[in-house]
Amino acid sequence: MTEPKRVAILGSTGSIGTQTLEVIRQHPADFIVEVLTAQNNADLLIAQALEFSPNVVVIGNESLYEKVRDVLQPKDIKVYAGSKAIAQVVEMDTIDVVLTALVGYSGLIPTVNAIKTGKQIALANKETLVVAGEIITALAKENRVNIYPVDSEHSAIFQCLIGEFHNPIEKIILTASGGPFRGKDRKFLETVTREQALKHPNWDMGAKITIDSASLMNKGLEVIEAKWLFGLKTEQIDVVVHPQSIIHSMVQFEDGSIKAQLGLPDMRIPIQFALSFPDRLKSDFERFDFMNYPQLTFEQPDLKTFQNLQLAYDALAKGGNAPCVLNAANEIAVAAFLNKEVGFLEMSDLIGETLAKAEFIAHPNLDDYVETDKRAREITQELITNKV
């Protein structure tokens, strides 16, 4: 890399954000932190800003603005607050790449604004493509913006395609760990607790994505994301359960050959590659040793027990605003599960009922997506209220 890239990290205090700063910490000559944003974790945001001296910091929770401002403004760091400020700050001319690690739907508008102003995107917020994949990919093409995937599975597909972009894909195979409840039946899942669901066997992630992984909704969202990232049809996207999480995903080409990307479960590798592409920067991350994994195993996902993955496939096949409804319903359902308002299996029921009740729009625009998200959340919340 010749010139250092100036990076905006949206969601710098979360799991992806903190690991991104680990990567930047290892490569101070290659990356400059230009913007940091967080929603509620003011203390960590302040500590990060004091270490990396960004130009701008945004705290989403406006009630924490004075706390952040009082510490950072004397250090010549600009401080703003609120979701609108997060969506606006990505337009700064000094930013080269925006890493979007916001949770859920909140990543959509900032990503749209970043693309419109020509910023390259390192995408860790899969919901952006789930909600509005057609609009996002069209905008990226129009503005000559590259979207570099940060999810380990999509990064794996991207890495397998380097040098192969002229060769048609027959299908891709997304791998799933199976989460903490792999092999369990519905009777078991009726009584699982929040604490059990938050214990992922392989990955250290935030609460929302950990629950999504346990319910296989995370894989469903990744199926939808893959469709837009790689221009695929629904039938070209397979999912296979791979408990060891060593093969991160695979591509099968028209000659029958399959390419796979392997490595230990470490999100810093796809983060670093998304930021440094087309270069691979040296790292001191732990290396994979085949002798420590003498067996790599594979299973079919259980769609009857873990219905969220099937719901995601159905929403993708239906198209229009259905994936947006799916995502909104899931975010409300997961929050309710984390608050112990609904059971684990009830999350799928809520999502399915919301998909049935929400208005279907075959060709939505951005305003339609915003309204769909709002209305789907209301429907799901009403269903929860009626159940309690």
From TrEMBL:
Phylogenetic placement of the source organism: Bacteria, Pseudomonadati, Bacteroidota, Cytophagia, Cytophagales
Report the protein's function: Catalyzes the NADPH-dependent rearrangement and reduction of 1-deoxy-D-xylulose-5-phosphate (DXP) to 2-C-methyl-D-erythritol 4-phosphate (MEP).
GO BP annotations of the record are: isopentenyl diphosphate biosynthetic process, methylerythritol 4-phosphate pathway involved in terpenoid biosynthetic process
A GO molecular-function descriptor: NADPH binding
Q: Please list the residues that bind NADPH.
A: T13, G14, S15, I16, N41, N125, E127, G206
Query: Which is an annotated Pfam family here?
Result: DXP_redisom_C
Which part of the chain is the 1-deoxy-D-xylulose 5-phosphate reductoisomerase N-terminal domain? 7-133
As its record notes, the protein acts as a catalyst of: 2-C-methyl-D-erythritol 4-phosphate + NADP(+) = 1-deoxy-D-xylulose 5-phosphate + NADPH + H(+)
Question: Which domain of life, per UniProt?
Answer: Bacteria
Which protein family is named in the record? Belongs to the DXR family.
Organism, by scientific name, is Algoriphagus yeomjeoni
Which residue ranges does the record assign to the DXP reductoisomerase C-terminal domain? Answer: 262-378
UniProt-listed Enzyme Commission number(s): 1.1.1.267
Quote the protein name from its UniProt record.
1-deoxy-D-xylulose 5-phosphate reductoisomerase
Tell me where in this chain the 1-deoxy-D-xylulose 5-phosphate reductoisomerase C-terminal domain is found.
147-230
Listed pathway(s): Isoprenoid biosynthesis; isopentenyl diphosphate biosynthesis via DXP pathway; isopentenyl diphosphate from 1-deoxy-D-xylulose 5-phosphate: step 1/6
Which positions are annotated as binding 1-deoxy-D-xylulose 5-phosphate? K126, S152, E153, S177, H200, S213, N218, K219, E222
InterPro entries, sorted = DXP_reductoisomerase, DXP_reductoisomerase_C, DXP_reductoisomerase_N, DXPR_C, DXPR_C_sf, NAD(P)-bd_dom_sf
- Name the needed cofactors: Mg(2+); Mn(2+)
Q: Which residues take part in binding Mn(2+)?
A: D151, E153, E222
